[in-house]
Specification:
It contains eleven helices and ten strands. By secondary structure, the protein is α/β, with parallel strands linked by helices.
């Protein structure tokens, strides 16, 4: 009986959220994963999480930890004085990014000679610099190497409002596939066209693409690591409108995979019962009529028992903490902030992942 075949071994999955410059925290998380020698089978992400994921899976040098950190230090800017407080640095750096862009990531259209007073465009920033930077650190041909993690990236189709999923198991990746997940319209970042599709940031639909991973790989159980860039909880109540917007943004973008985990447990219970019932029927003598009926449902049983939603055996959330609440913290690319985020991501992950995969 096919249904009695042993389950595939559990896969280790790393899920990376979008969050602009906060993505440097995910670099630190991956440094800890590498140091702890945790093998990642699938890395999934959206927005800056998708960019980080592509470097991890398709590292040009073969050393994804180094390439990822070098990528973030390339994006880091040294335009703010070192004597500023953290809050002052956040504000001044984000204002600089909004006005002048980031030479290695995004360029404001108003700095072009063609930009006039009546210039009309559906976006304000061009991501061409980010494509150039990304290609210094990735080699997409390496995604076909079975020793590399499988790469899953999500974006949003502008025209039909549905999720578009790119999967290195089936798709031949280019930089356009990766950048398609990072065009955030609320910050005026341009969309990307891939084939006939016009694609925006995947965070518009989900900032934590765990469900997409399970759909892409339904036959293997999962051990999941999520880097949560936006705190789910906050004790203090917002004091002004900017803090209210900040808190609302955190809630919208924070990890919401609890329902996915709950459904995984429900599916597991149902499958256990179905398998037990199948074993009972298989052991009971049946007359010719019931044998025929049993044979008719056997293919459907095997399909259900094997091609199911994967079970989540373990999930570890590594959550970024924040000392202050600032709405545009995700546009702070100052080198001090980038280094601080990398360090805190690594420290938090080392603690959270100490017993990962050991239960």
């Amino acid at each position: 009986m096919n249904a009695k075949k042993k389950r595939d071994s559990a896969e280790n999955v790393l899920v990376l959220q979008g969050g602009g410059s906060l993505g440097a925290y995910e670099c630190g998380v991956y440094k800890a994963i590498d140091r702890l020698k945790i093998k990642i089978d699938i890395v999934a992400g959206t927005s800056i999480g998708g960019i980080n994921a592509s470097i991890i899976a398709a590292s040009k040098s073969g050393n994804p930890t180094k390439d990822l950190e070098d990528f973030w230090l390339t994006l880091a800017q040294t335009v703010t004085p070192s004597f500023l407080t953290d809050r002052a640095r956040e504000i001044s750096s984000s204002i600089y990014s909004a006005m002048w862009g980031n030479s290695n990531a995004f360029a404001p259209l108003w700095l072009r000679s063609s930009f006039g007073f009546l210039y009309n465009s559906p976006y304000l920033y061009d991501m061409s610099p980010l494509k150039t930077t990304l290609e210094k650190f990735v080699d997409y041909t390496k995604l076909k190497d079975p020793s590399r993690p499988r790469l899953v990236i999500t974006s949003t189709d502008i025209q039909n409002g549905k999720s578009t999923i790119f999967d290195s198991k089936y798709d031949n990746f280019t930089s356009e596939h990766v950048l398609s997940s990072a065009g955030y319209p609320f910050y005026g970042i341009s969309w990307t066209k891939v084939g006939s599709k016009y694609l925006w940031d995947g965070t518009l639909l989900s900032n934590t693409p765990l469900r997409e991973v399970i759909d892409a790989s339904p036959m293997c159980d999962k051990r999941v690591i999520i880097a949560n860039l936006f705190p789910r909880g906050q004790e203090d109540i917002p004091k002004n409108m900017m803090e209210s917007w900040h808190r609302a943004r955190d809630i919208m973008h924070a990890d919401k995979t609890d329902q996915t985990v709950r459904m995984s447990k429900v599916v597991s219970r149902y499958l256990t019962i179905i398998n037990k019932m199948h074993d009972i029927l298989e052991s009971v003598p049946l007359d010719e009529s019931n044998k025929k009926k049993f044979a008719e449902i056997e293919p459907e049983f095997n399909k259900l028992a094997r091609q199911r939603g994967a079970i989540i055996n373990e999930i570890v959330r590594i959550e970024r903490k924040e000392d202050t609440h600032y709405l545009f913290e995700d546009a702070d690319f100052s080198i001090a902030t980038i280094k601080k985020l990398i360090k805190s991501g690594e420290e938090d992950a080392k603690i959270a992942l100490e017993n990962f995969g050991k239960n």
